[in-house]
Amino acid sequence: MVERRVYATSKQIHFGTRSCDNRRNHLQHEQARRIVIGTIGSRLAQQQGLCRGFVIMPDHVDALIWFPETWQLSPCLNKWKEQTSKSLKTVLPQRFQSDWPQIDSTEPIWQARYYGFNIGSRAKVEEKLDDMHRNPVRAGLVERASDWPWSSARWYVEQKSAGLPIRWPPGLEADDEFTTDPSWPADEIASCAYGTRPPSTGGRAT
């Protein structure tokens, strides 16, 4: 099996999946999904990043994102993880006391690592969009991808707001292949399978 990696020095579009710890349905409620969307939008705005597509499922989040500067992916995802963890642990037990599982303050909301890789062509971006937009259909949540309000499918199919601006990165609108800057030295293309470096296996998730 070929290992896919995210390179922090690349300005390609990044695909990432962040799953809830033990694949629990922490995002089953509307308020939880609103927290996720709002935090993604805030982080991207602060770092001038763009979203090309996303889907929020009850137990994970998929997204295609891009940054105008290098070494921005890991800070964005780490801060997003920290902020959503805090918000979900604070808000949801208060709003949904009857069916929200009791979560100890030391228990993580998210898995320690996320799965991600760079995408180097328009065809692959569109392929990944189609695949992740079908997740709610495959899960039996809706009959059509555009019926799921917590994804960018409705923007693509019906031009309805998805809660986040959906745009192509400037300069990539008409490109079929997205290449990295050849001036970057090879030794700067560090291992970034999880943003910058794989987190220690002994650390706790948040």
Written description of the protein model:
There is one protein chain. This protein has 5 helices and 4 strands; from the N terminus they run E-H-E-E-H-E-H-H-H. It has helices at residues 30-46, 73-95, 122-133, 135-138, 153-158; strands at residues 13-19, 50-56, 60-66, 115-119. A 4-stranded antiparallel beta sheet has the order 2-3-1-4, sandwiched between helices. Strand 2 (50-56) and strand 3 form a beta hairpin. Helix 1 packs antiparallel against helix 2 (73-95). The two termini are 29 Å apart. The model is unreliable at 178-206 (pLDDT under 50).
Strand and helix layout:
Layout lengths: L12 E7 L10 H17 L3 E7 L3 E7 L6 H23 L19 E5 L2 H12 L1 H4 L14 H6 L48
Antiparallel strand pairs: 1-3, 1-4, 2-3
List its traits.
206 residues; alpha+beta; 5 helices; 30% helix; 13% strand; globular
Number of helices: 5
Unreliable stretches covering 5 or more consecutive residues = 178-206
Helix-strand sequence: EHEEHEHHH
The overall average pLDDT, rounded, is 77
Q: SS-based structural class? A: alpha+beta
- Helical fraction equals 25-40%
- From the N-terminal CA to the C-terminal CA, the straight-line distance is 29 Å
**Total strands:** 4
Biggest sheet: strand arrangement:
2-3-1-4
The description of the largest β-sheet is: 4 strands, antiparallel
Give a quick precis of the structure.
30% of the residues lie in helices and 13% in strands. It has 206 residues and is α+β, with helices and mostly antiparallel strands.
